[in-house]
Amino acid sequence: MTIAINHISMYTTNLEDTKNFFITFFNATPNKKYHNPKTGLSTYFLSFADSQVKLEIMTKPDLSTDCGIHTGLNHLAFSLNCKERVDELTKQLSENGYKTLSGPRTTGDGYYESCVEGPEGILIELTQ
């Protein structure tokens, strides 16, 4: 039996800003917005070139943002295939107001990466 990741999901308080973040910085392609009028849930599935894994971003009217420590999704890791691209995108994100939390640097296990805080505080890991 083959098992593969189909999608990763995250809740956000601002669906359009989050969608635009991933379009602008990661060349994501969104599907048509889904909205469930009964529950208020709205979602996009974002696709990325050369990847079968999609990112589902979701919001709903009663979504709480004051929950303190949250469990669940910790970070999204994007492979950029070269050190220069890690450096460039880290700089671009920083110049656009996103906080660089670490790097770019080579980790103890040999990965070249940086970590940036994205929308809703999600950690975005940029790897070689």
TrEMBL record:
It comes from the Eukaryota. Pfam families: Glyoxalase. InterPro entries: Fosfomycin_Res_Enzymes, Glyas_Bleomycin-R_OHBP_Dase, Glyas_Fos-R_dOase_dom, VOC_core. Residues 4-128 form the VOC domain. This is VOC domain-containing protein. It comes from Entamoeba invadens IP1. The lineage of its organism: Eukaryota, Amoebozoa, Evosea, Archamoebae, Mastigamoebida.
